[in-house]
């Protein structure tokens, strides 16, 4: 199931960010390492992780993983602290179903943008709202894409 809404906003303060090239199979390990780093820094994870993919290079993904935290964490060579993430004039695709179907939902969002003459100005930012390991069909993911506010 897919619901698309226009004129939405994503605003989150205090995030720890990892940006790099990894294999799909390594993403879970990256997230676990980030959670450990956050805990060791004396902070807590306060929201769902956010992911975005900038490019796909053969077997590597150029991704960013953002984790909302409850305090300020010093940046390192590996992780950067970001004060905020703000996407205004966003198109949001709220997807419910097996995560394997997310690509088809993203394709539907692309068709929607084309049909409505909308120009994306950001990558898609994925926020997993609900995970049901026993029944993956109950997974809920929101995808935010910033849209150019100019009408041409």
State the gist of this model.
The chain is α+β, with helices and mostly antiparallel strands and 152 residues long.
Provide a descriptive summary of the structure in words.
This protein has 152 residues and is α+β, with helices and mostly antiparallel strands. The protein has two domains: 2-10 and 87-146, no CATH class; 11-84. 18% of the residues lie in helices and 45% in strands. A six-stranded antiparallel barrel has the order 1-3-2-5-6-4. Strand 2 and strand 3 (60-68) form a beta hairpin.
Q: SSE order in H/E notation?
A: EHEEEHEE
Tally the beta strands.
Answer: 6
Beta percentage is 35-45%
Number of domains: 2
Counting DSSP H or I runs of 4 or more residues, the number of helices is 2
Oligomeric grouping of the chains:
single chain
Radius of gyration: 16 Å
**Mean pLDDT reading:** 92
Helix-residue proportion: 10-25%
Q: How far apart are the termini?
A: 31 Å
The major beta sheet can be summarized as: 6 strands, antiparallel, barrel
Give start-end ranges of low-pLDDT stretches: none
């Amino acid at each position: 199931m897919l619901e698309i809404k226009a004129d939405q906003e994503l605003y989150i303060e205090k995030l720890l960010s990892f940006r790099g090239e990894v294999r799909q199979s390594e993403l879970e390990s990256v997230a676990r390492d980030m959670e450990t780093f956050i805990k060791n820094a004396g902070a807590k994870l306060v929201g769902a992780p956010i992911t975005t993919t900038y490019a796909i290079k053969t077997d590597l993904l150029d991704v960013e993983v953002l984790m909302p935290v409850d305090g300020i964490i010093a940046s390192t060579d590996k992780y950067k602290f970001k004060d905020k993430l703000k996407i205004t004039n966003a198109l949001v695709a709220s997807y419910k179903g097996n995560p394997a179907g997310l690509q088809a939902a993203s394709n539907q969002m692309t068709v929607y943008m084309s049909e409505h003459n909308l120009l994306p100005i950001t990558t898609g930012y994925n926020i997993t709202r609900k995970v049901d390991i026993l029944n993956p069909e109950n997974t809920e993911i929101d995808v935010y894409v910033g849209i150019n506010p100019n009408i041409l």
